[in-house]
Specification:
Layout: H1 4-15, E1 21-26, H2 30-45, E2 49-51, E3 59-64, H3 69-85, E4 89-93, H4 100-107, E5 113-114, H5 120-130, E6 154-158, E7 160-161, H6 172-176, E8 180-181, H7 184-196, E9 201-205, E10 220-223, E11 226-229, H8 232-239, E12 245-248, H9 261-265, E13 272-274, H10 282-288, H11 297-307, E14 312-319, H12 326-339, E15 343-348, H13 366-389, E16 395-402, E17 409-412, E18 424-427, E19 442-450, E20 455-459
Length: 460
């Protein structure tokens, strides 16, 4: 019997049907990336393989973004390329929802299917119709953590869908629906599988992480023999038990965020907050219909840093919003001086089809938007550079992302989220260095230099 089993496996391999192949294009934000991962996981579970070329694909799936004009244009270009190179194309994502889906239908009438975000069933139905699955459970193995599009050592953990806010510049609720939180036990079980698979950093994402669980009335669930509430604090308490870095994105500055600060001070959760402040002028925030617009955000930041002095805050802002005056903009620059944020992104306001801000009076000329954008970035660049200079001489923990034998390897500190923040360039790793580290390893380094956005370090 011991000799016949390998022979049977070889014979079976010869008879294995060719797996249907799917090309996949994923565009947009991390929330869309998670949608792509879920679709790919289902495809793999059903025996499909992915291919990087159009000509080898039996069908192509394009997961689109439709939030701003540039994203719409990029998505339409991707669909057009897939149609030209392959011809069998399934479109999903934000551009497939609401009024914008008609743009896609008009431009590409021969698409196999168009569906909105999170509509995994429609995508799978369209793929099945184009090329039936050839699943063989004896051969087709799916990793327990599912298919991931990020490096093995970090992963996005989406805790909810949709949003209940009605920001005047945003159409996300019309594309992704109202807040729909995942039960805390479901999220914690997924996080545990990810960590077991080797993930060292969990990036918590949603449209409004602070509102997590409100739609479920913060219902409790049991995980590892302990009760946790479906709310941001309960989630963080559970995630802190896994030993991985936990990074919070898209957190609104509500008072209950204060309750997370002790966990950050104890490094049970990374001392990092991604807070989309968007502006500082009360008049502009009111016109934006921003949640927490009435909050004294500077006071809230001071309170957070009192509890957790190492807290790193990143944010995004919009300049040139309709009705923004020079006085409003100067107030924003003064606010930046006071807030001393660590990482900041800035966008020039641009109209989005379907957004109520399009009808607001006082549209700002493009040349004024451009001038304010550069003044804003010059101000923040000086702040960021000064804060990084203060880290010279410190010993910090970094998560290694890339190993280069003949050049500085790349890592990130607690203050640096992947893709959007700075990096730490480390000498002494790799085959030619003092330490043969691997991506996903956490090591201690000493900061020896800094520029406007990045740190440079040697092994501690």
């Amino acid at each position: 019997m011991a000799r016949t089993a390998p022979a049977r496996r070889r014979a079976g391999a010869a008879l294995k049907p060719a797996a249907p192949k799917v090309g996949f294009v994923s565009l947009g934000c991390p929330k869309a990336l998670v949608d792509s991962e879920r679709i790919l996981t289902q495809l793999r579970a059903e025996g499909y393989e992915t291919t990087p070329t159009y000509d080898a694909a039996d069908v192509v799936v394009v997961n689109t973004c439709g939030f701003i004009d540039d994203a719409v244009a990029e998505s339409l270009d991707a669909i057009g390329e897939a149609m030209a190179e392959n011809g069998k194309v399934v479109v999903t994502g934000c551009l497939g929802a609401g009024p914008k889906s008609q743009i896609v239908r008009d431009k590409f009438p021969d698409l196999l299917s168009i569906s909105g975000p999170q509509d995994y069933a429609s995508v799978m139905h369209a793929v099945h119709a184009a090329v039936p699955p050839a699943h063989d459970p004896f051969f087709d193995l799916l990793p327990p953590q599912g298919i991931k599009l990020t490096p093995k050592h970090y992963a996005y953990l989406k805790i909810s869908e949709g949003c209940n806010h009605k920001c005047s510049f945003c159409i996300i609720p019309s594309m992704r629906g109202r807040l729909a939180s995942r039960p805390v036990t479901e999220v914690l079980n997924e996080a545990e599988k990810l960590v077991r698979s080797g993930v060292q950093e969990l990036l918590v994402i949603s449209q409004d992480t602070s509102a997590y669980g409100a739609d479920l009335k913060y219902a409790s669930g049991k995980w590892r023999d302990k009760e946790y509430e479906t709310r941001m604090l309960g989630l963080c308490e559970g995630l802190s038990q896994l030993g991985a870095w936990v990074r919070l994105h898209y957190v609104y500055p509500y008072p209950h965020v204060d309750h997370i600060m002790p966990l950050m001070a104890e490094r049970k959760v990374l001392p990092y907050l991604d807070v989309p402040f968007q502006h500082a002028s009360p008049k502009v925030l009111k016109a934006m219909k921003r949640p927490a617009a009435a909050e004294d955000t500077l006071e809230r930041i001071r309170a957070w840093r009192t509890i957790c002095p190492d807290l790193s805050i990143r944010s995004t802002f919009i300049v040139g919003f309709p009705g923004e005056t020079e006085k409003d903009f100067e107030l924003l620059l003064d606010w930046l001086d006071e807030a001393q944020l660590d990482r900041v992104g800035c966008f020039r306001y641009s109209p989005v089809d379907g957004a109520t801000a399009n009808a607001l009076p006082g549209q700002v000329p493009d040349e004024v938007k451009e001038e304010r954008y550069h003044r804003f970035m010059e101000k923040q660049q000086a702040i960021s550079a000064a804060k990084l200079q203060n880290k010279i001489g410190q010993t910090i923990e970094v998560l290694v992302d890339e190993i280069h034998d003949d050049a500085a390897s790349v890592g990130r500190s607690w203050a640096d989220a992947p893709e959007i923040d700075g990096k730490v360039y480390i000498k002494g790793l790799g085959a030619n260095g003092k330490l043969k580290a691997m991506p996903g390893q956490r090591i201690k380094v000493k900061v020896v230099d800094a520029d406007d956005y990045d740190l440079f370090a040697t092994l501690a």
